[in-house]
Design goal:
Helix content is about 30%, strand content about 50%. By secondary structure, it is an alpha+beta fold. The protein folds into 2 domains: about 80 residues; about 180 residues, Porin (Beta Barrel). The longest helix has about 70 residues. The N and C termini lie far apart (about 125 Å).
Length: about 260
Amino acid sequence: MYNKNKLFNGGIFTNCFIIVLMLFAVNAEQLHAQNDSLHKSYSDTVNYTKMRDSLMKVYFQQSKDYEKMMNKQQSKQRGLGSSLFGLTLDVIFGIGISNTQFDVNGDTTGLSNANSKTGPMIGVNVNFNLLGIALGTGFNYSSKGFSTGGSQQESANYINIPLMFAFNFDVGKKIQVDLAAGPYVGILLSQEKNQYYQLSNIDLGIVATVQGNYFFNRFLGALLGVKYEHGGLNDMIEKSSANSYVSSVKARNWFIYSGIKFIL
C-alpha cells in the first residue's frame, strides 16, 4: 500500500519543476527576443549612419559642383548679367580703302581705271541681345572716293546706318569674337564737284564685320576689327542729263578699325 503523502509531495514537486521550466523557457524566449531586438536596433543604426554619411557626401559634392558652376558663370558675366537682354556700345575709329568702279560711256580723265583711295572712318555701333537674338546698328562716317593716275583725289563722304545680325562666341575668359552681316543705308553728306557725274544721295549695300573683343572687366573692353562694304546695289549714280559720261557707279570698301566697348 502506497503512501499518499509521498505521492502528493511528489506531484507537487513535479508540478513546481514544470512551472520552473516553463518560466525559464518564457524568460529565455523573452531574452532571445530582446537580444534580437537589440541586434536589429544596432543593425538599423549602422545602416542609418551609412545612409546618412552617403547622402551627406552626395550633398557636399553637389554643393561643391554648384559653387564651381556659379563661379564659372560669374567669371564670364558681363554687364548687368541679364540672360534676356544685353546692350553694348562700340566707339570705333579706323582707316578705309575705297575702290570705286565707274561704267563710262567714254574715258574721261581716267575714270575707267580709277585707283583706290584711303580715308578715315569713325562711328558708334549699338548691339542688342534680346532673347538670344543679336542685332547691331549705329552710325558710321567714312570718306570714300577714288584717285586718278596722278595725285588728284576725289572724296565722297557718307554716313552709313547698318542693320546687322550678329553671332558671337568666347575664346577664353576675356576674349570674344563677333561675326556680323546685314544691309546698310548710306547717306551722302558731300561730294567734290566735277563735270562728269553726280552721286545719288542714297547708297544701298551690304556690310560684314569680324571683330575681336578683349574685356578688361564686366563693363569695359577694347576691340579690333575688319569691315567690308559692298555698295552701289541701287547704283550710286544720280540719274540726270549731267551724268551722260558715266552710266553707273559701284563701291567696294575695306576698313580696319579699333575702339572701346562699353557693356551695359
